[in-house]
Amino acid sequence: MKKKQLIRFFIGIGVIVLLNFLANQFFFRIDLTEDQRYTIAPATERLLEKLEEPVFITVYLEGNDIPPAFKRLRTTVKEKLEEFTAYAGNNIRFRFEDITQETDKKKLNERIYNLIKKGIQPTNLVDKEGGSTVERLIIPGAMVSYEGKEAPVMLLRGNQRTKGLSSEQILNQSVENVEYELASAIRQLTNNERKRIGIIQGYGNLRPIQMADMITSLQKFYDVFLVPMQKQPELKGLDAIIVAKPDSAFSEEDKYKIDQFIVNGGKALFFVDALKSDTILRGESTLLIKNDLNLDDLFFRYGVRLNDNVIQDLTSSGAIPMTVGNMGSQPQVKLMPWRFFPLVNTFSKHPIVRNLDAVYLHYVGTIDTVKAVAIQKTPLMFTSPYSKVNAVPAQIDFNEARLNPDPRQYRAGPQSVAYLLEGKFHSLYANRITQVDPRFKMFKEYGNPSKIIICSDGDLPANEIDPKTGKPAALGYDQFMNTTFANKDFILHAVDYLIDENGVIAARAKEVVLRPLDKLKVQEERLQWQLINLVLPIVVIVILGLIRAYWRKRKYAV
């Protein structure tokens, strides 16, 4: 009997040793959660496995008195970093630090100031406890360091003011974005193979100072060049191009360059206005007319049509200052809703726009799709359901901001204002380039798969210029509403997807479903569930113990 037990014991030990050996040789992880919250994207895995030197991550979301919702975010960050170490090993090193425990106020203020300078913005939370108001300083950010370089990470993403969501929903979106934010910072610091982006110039496009924040933000990940189209024989050597708010017609020669760049697999991002302001009458109105860019046939061949109209949005729009009266001898200025400046807050589920804050647009038109063989068309952004579409020419009276709108006129429904097109594009110049044309040998009618994004607002990538200092403001910032919208995030995500759709942008597709408890039901059934969870297990154990004692007594009774 003892010999058999010893054999079983050693067999068990052998099985355990064998399993450990196999686990060390063949790495795998199993995520049994419904929403796969502990699974990281394949691109993130590759990024972590390629790390050659340690990446140090300091998380400042720490403290014993942070609210429960932020504890959930902190727990998610910790779990995600532990997942990172499973793939990167000792090349991911992280720690949590609570700088609010600093007793010296001067040192604390210095540290907070330094974090703000580096891009990590603290936030003050006000709670009521025991009838009194308690203010807590929360720092929902992290600093990623690699070989002497640093990149800030804001873990709390989402502007409640622009999204119109509850605090719980905003925090849930932040939880969903943790992997992308951390992986994106690591990629920024470790990326040695930088793609090349060309910003098209020469057609009245935005000036560099008007795109300063976009250019600076893109330069963290890519090499960015200003490309004077008329002087460039071709666009080879670039991975993507950006056409930002042209106001004059493209020549056929330059349009051909763009066409062949896209057909050969180059990526493109177009921010174009279908309309332009022709005249401004005494500062009271403006006339919008068609903006002839000579790109309509190119877009039509690729699968979309920019319509000659302008959208008004009843429920989600920006504001402009208007004089509404006088107080004594001083004019009384008030911000009035300007429905020609939509705040786009409705998006598709594509990773480019998933969990995106509102995007601020100016005089935007509608986009329709047309037949294009083998081209997949994905709408990205929509105005609200309460939209009105105005045909051109349209005279826009600024006094309209003072008037109460008629809701019956705003029934056009959501209008698409940005499209992603993917596939093998058919050249606009098919059957036009003959054998006697010197371009014939290099011409391609069909080429490599590519992707382009077309947005019907040329102002989306434009940052404001401070009139006092002449310096550019943050992209998406509106001085009148004192709010920064998600224009920059949209561009960064769009470029990231265009250049590498299998990159870390794929992590933005992760969805963590909120499963809130029914508070009324919890209150009503509280005692019942307390008894089930606390008393029932004890009762079951006692019953099983009595049954076992009775069975042993019967079995061994003489």
TrEMBL record:
Keywords: Membrane, Transmembrane, Transmembrane helix. The chain crosses the membrane at residues 7-28, 529-551. Signal peptide: none annotated. The lineage of its organism: Bacteria, Pseudomonadati, Bacteroidota, Cytophagia, Cytophagales. This is Gliding motility-associated ABC transporter substrate-binding protein GldG. InterPro entries: ABC_transp_unknown (IPR019196), DUF7088 (IPR055396), Motility-assoc_ABC-rel_GldG (IPR019863). Residues 34-145 form the DUF7088 domain. Residues 194-493 form the ABC-type uncharacterised transport system domain. It comes from Xanthocytophaga flava. The keyword DNA repair does not apply.
